[in-house]
Design a protein that fits this description.
4 helices, mainly alpha
Amino acid sequence: MTVLHEIILNVVLFVPLGFLWGIPSSKWPRKWQWFGTMVLGVCLSGVIELLQYCFKRGCVELDDVIHNTLGCLIGFVLWRGLCEIERQPEKDNMISVDYQKYFEQ
């Protein structure tokens, strides 16, 4: 497996976690949502790396923690983007033309 492949897998692995983290953290102030997402990514990834070290499974690397945290943040950005799309009002009538004034005589 190439290095780029491992990086992509580490990032993608944590995207769902960041996305789902948006649900309970949506009631927090916005700056704490971002901070909480980062702490969650670092802590959970750190626990995984610590377990790999203790059980001598896999390779323990600091860049895995960084990439997993990045994936968590990307998932949270996707969640926030979805929330912003839902908040926008419907813009079906962006251009309204009053046709009656053209047919009145």
